[in-house]
Design goal:
Layout lengths: L10 H13 L8 H7 L10 H18 L15 H22 L16 H8 L2 H12 L6 H12 L10 H12 L5 H16 L6 H19 L1 H10 L3 H11 L5 H12 L5 H8 L26 E2 L7 E2 L2 H15 L6 H13 L3 H12 L5 E5 L3 E5 L4 H13 L4 H14 L4 H12 L6 H5 L7 H9 L5 E2 L4 E2 L6
Antiparallel strand pairs: 1-2, 3-4, 5-6
Helix pairs in contact: 1-4, 1-16, 4-5, 4-7, 6-7, 7-10, 9-10, 10-11, 12-13, 17-20, 18-19, 19-20
Bound molecules: zinc ion (ZN) (2 copies).
């Protein structure tokens, strides 16, 4: 599935896309999966090993970069603004989301891809980066300053620290939890403070089901690594702040799978539940799918042997033998060398990202192509969609005209918003955010409201869009245009 961008290969590519996503206000659309799409990542649940392998040079570059102790370190961008922070966090959470989807840790994601994964090294390096963990922890402490997507990304990273313990050595994970998550405090005080901060997060007005899941999993996984499966829930149920968690859980209940809701509720309120039942819940798997087992595969093209010998320099790729490593070295050494951000390359990558078709608009066009008969598709959480149909032929044509003008006319984006939110008033907030992601303009802003539409002869416009000039097929409802031509 093409996202409109080529596969990321370097930190410069990423920074270029971050710049363009910030320009297009992509972060304002709340669904993390869709922001990932805007950066050029595939959907985590649909990501194949082939796509992961293509991203390998990028992650080698990124992970080498975050371990550099200087200004070139991309993590130093995280403090600049919430926009930058959330976009960058998505790049870090992507491999974790793929892992979660394949292992179904959260119960939120059912993976469509039935392949063993090859990215545990990448995931491990992300959740074991001290600077990143500390940044995520601070995000919880000072949560009132951050938009909920930033907290969601941070909670996702923290909630993965322990499930990856099959890969991390357990004592290493424990040490990391004490140092970074507990900020140097003892286990009891450290955990009490973490829980207090997480309770602050779930008490926010803008809490979403995704954040709720990550927050509960985070404390469960932290406790599991400290106390073992059986005792973890018992400690949780005794802890303070139960009320805040329960109220928040009720608020997001409608968006949760019923089994997942039950699991989270038990985690908060499991005191009267028998111990064996609790132990089963800790290992709860909401789908029938067996989780994939981690598999290290030799990085040499066409070699399918286990690749347990890691490259000693970057530690991110594995080979079955010395022979395969030697064979691959001339190509791998280009990715394996130390990362250093090059300003000229960033400028070039920004330009390239700006020229590429807007992923959000491409996505809308693809939905319309696959669903002829609809004039617009409203994206709902959990990959659900609502097709908008317009009965009246004239209204349909006018709607198409507004869509056609919208890439260049903020006034038309406002008109689309007015029409769509009149038809679906309960979804007006979602519609506003989606249009903002697609056109980079807030349709409810005074700027959009006061932008005039060109005074045109409607008949002439209808005639012109029938011509070849705009390449519009009125029958299928499909339109193609390129705002950057
Ligand atoms: Zn290497
Ligand atoms: Zn091999």
């Amino acid at each position: 599935m093409s996202t409109g961008y080529d596969t990321l290969t370097s930190v410069e590519d990423l920074i270029g896309r971050l710049n363009v996503c910030a320009e297009r206000k992509v972060t304002q659309s709340a669904d993390p999966d869709r922001v990932l799409f805007s950066l050029g990542f595939p959907y985590p649940v649909a990501t194949t090993n082939e796509q992961l392998a293509a991203l390998e040079p990028f992650y080698i570059d990124l992970l080498q970069n975050i371990e550099e102790q200087n200004d070139n370190n991309i993590l130093s961008r995280l403090d600049k603004s919430d926009d930058d922070a959330i976009l960058l966090l998505y790049a870090f959470t992507f491999p974790l989301l793929v892992l979660m989807a394949r292992k179904d840790i959260s119960g939120n994601a059912q993976c469509y891809v039935d392949e063993a994964y090859e990215i545990p090294d990448i995931a491990e390096r992300i959740v074991s980066n001290k600077q990143l963990i500390t940044w995520c922890r601070t995000c919880m402490t000072e949560q009132e300053r951050h938009i909920i997507s930033v907290i969601s990304g941070a909670a996702c990273i923290l909630s993965n620290v322990n499930p990856l313990q099959q890969i991390l050595s357990k004592s290493k994970a424990k040490k990391r939890i004490r140092r970074q998550l507990f900020q140097g405090k003892g286990d009891n005080v450290g955990f009490r403070d973490l829980r207090k901060d997480l309770a602050g997060v779930v008490s926010r007005d803008d809490i979403t089901s995704t954040v709720m899941v990550h927050v509960v999993l985070c404390q469960l996984h932290v406790l599991t690594s400290l106390h073992g499966d059986k005792n973890a829930i018992l400690v949780l149920t005794k802890a303070a702040h139960k009320g805040e968690f329960d109220r928040a859980l009720i608020r997001v209940k409608a968006d949760l799978d019923p089994n997942l809701f039950r699991f989270l509720r038990m985690t908060i309120f499991g005191t009267s539940t028998p111990k064996e039942e609790i132990a089963k819940l800790v290992n709860y798997r909401p789908t029938n799918r067996e989780p994939c087992q981690p598999k290290f595969v030799c990085s040499r093209d066409g070699c399918h042997q286990p690749g347990q010998h890691r490259c000693s320099r970057c530690k991110l790729v594995g080979y079955c033998s010395k022979e395969c490593q030697v064979f691959c070295w001339s190509e791998h050494k280009m990715n394996c060398k130390k990362s250093s951000v090059n300003t000229k390359k960033v400028e070039a990558a920004t330009k390239a990202a700006r020229r590429a078709p807007d992923p959000a608009l491409l996505q809308q066009d693809r939905h319309l192509m696959n669903n002829p008969g609809y004039e617009y598709v409203i994206l709902l959480p959990d990959h659900k969609m609502l097709g908008v149909q317009i009965e009246n032929e004239m209204s349909k044509t006018i709607f198409k005209l507004f869509r056609l003008m919208a890439p260049n006319k903020p006034g038309a984006v406002n008109c689309l918003y007015t029409l769509l939110s009149t038809m679906h008033p309960d979804l007006s907030e979602k519609i506003g955010k989606q249009l903002m992601a697609e056109y980079g303009v807030d349709p409810t802003s005074d700027f959009a409201k006061n932008s005039e539409l060109p005074k045109v002869n409607l008949e002439a416009m209808i005639e012109s869009i029938r011509g070849t000039h705009y390449n519009v097929d009125l029958d299928s409802g499909m339109m193609t245009f390129d705002r950057y031509l």
